[in-house]
Amino acid sequence: TLVAHGSITKFIPHLLICDTTNIFFNTAWLLRLTGFRGSIVVTYLELTFAIAFLFTRVINLPVVFYSLYYHPHTSTLGYAKYTLPPIAFLQWFWFYKIVRSIVIRLLPAKKQRKEE
């Protein structure tokens, strides 16, 4: 069973911690909608989101998925265990998009300084 000692339920806290990044993302999103787009608070929330995303989803999640994929009780999941690697790759893709948007925001500021 899934609830026995040494079962896969020990991975649930590792998966739930990933949702903590949503707090920073959603708060920044709401502040942008209410007119605080360029504020320092939104910038800090976005940076905190990126750092939390790195640690909880880009680093933690693939390690948990690897452990879960090769866990003896994973056979009870059937074909569902084959969805774990694509989810890990999706986290990496999203992090690439996050980093790219940060770089795009920072580079135009550097170009404008050179032109002045």
Automatic annotation (TrEMBL):
InterPro entries referenced in this protein's UniProt entry, alphabetically: TLC-dom
Pfam family, one: TRAM_LAG1_CLN8
Cellular component GO terms held in the UniProt record: membrane
Domain TLC: start-end pairs: 1-107
Membrane topology note: Multi-pass membrane protein
Source organism superkingdom: Eukaryota
Cell division recorded as keyword: no
Entry keywords, A to Z: Membrane, Transmembrane, Transmembrane helix
PROSITE patterns associated with the record: TLC (PS50922)
Chief localisation class: membrane
Coiled coil: none
Membrane-spanning intervals of the chain: 12-31, 43-69
Keyword Transmembrane: yes
Subcellular location(s) per record: Membrane
This protein's name: TLC domain-containing protein
Native organism: Chromulina nebulosa
